[in-house]
Design goal:
The protein is mainly beta. It has one helix spanning 2-17, and strands at residues 30-35, 40-45, 50-56, 66-70, 76-80, 100-106, 111-118, 122-127, 133-138, 144-149, 155-160, 165-170, 176-181, 186-191, 196-202, 209-212, 217-222, 227-232, 237-243, 251-253, 260-264, 269-276, 279-287, 292-298, 303-308, 313-318, 324-328, 333-339. The chain contains one helix and 28 strands. The chain is globular.
Length: 340
Amino acid sequence: MQRLKIVFLSLILISCSKKEQLLPELDYPHAYVVTGKGRSLDLINLSTHSMINSMLLTESSDKFPHHVYASTSGRFLAISNPGYDFSLGHNGLHGKTFSGELLIYDSRKRQIVQTITTPFANHNAVFSPDEKQIWTSTASHSGRALAYSFPEGKLLAEITLDADPSDIIFSPDGKFLFVASGESTFLQVIDAEKKELVKKIKVDISPDNVWPGNNNMVLVSNSLIKSINFVDIKSFEVSDFIDLDFSPGFACLNPSDNDLWVCSPKTDEVFVFSKINNIWVQKSKVSVAGEPHMIHFYNSGKKALIISQSSSEISFYDIQTEEIKTISTSAAPNGIVIFD
């Protein structure tokens, strides 16, 4: 009988050890910042303006993590991990072959739980709204959109795109994906259910990237023409535009007032525009050293988090007081996701 008790207790302990060990959810406003040359995921406390920790995403010196998007539940983060440093620009990709990866970070386990290899360097990765799929695009002349099942990691579809696609993003309802290709003059639309290209929307030539906008809008940045196209994702048409006197990088709309914020990496500034009498007018600008690369808003649009790639810094900007606080990150930050 004693031996049976010992065996039974051992089975219980073994069974318990195999259960999923989840850590508590973070109970403070925070952001995750992905760094390319640092190859890290930096956890930032938005209340104290401080870095909590930095986790190495890859030990491979030839990989450069790039951009980050959260799943609908917020538990998982999708990060591309190309074998190419996109901070060098896209021209270095031409005529060469670079591998890519998808990294899936579990915020409850505090670790990478899945790695999926892609046939070429990929610009970003996004979850479908139901968290059952992960999409990415390969930034090559033979551009492809790739859909993988989650958590199985099985390739579900491969869709041909125009040359040099960049980020791929979902519409808010999850029905469509949008991706711009640098060697085209179109924003491409993919039907998420059918997994096929269904539309090409004419935008300015050589679009650099497409970014999420407010409501039924996405923004296409064009550094060659120096413009931003506003694309209505219901009508599949360009509904508005703004011509600039600088080459735009990342662009976004403040959810509180619909002001347009545009990074100008070459001049170390972020420009803010308001629409007055149906015309976009410069409202203000924020000087941010080190090539501002991306902006995300928090605290109901009252504050902005700005990352600078070449100086490896994060700037916390209070929109009402215009106060700014800057801290260091790991090397070459390029992606942000915020939970507040």
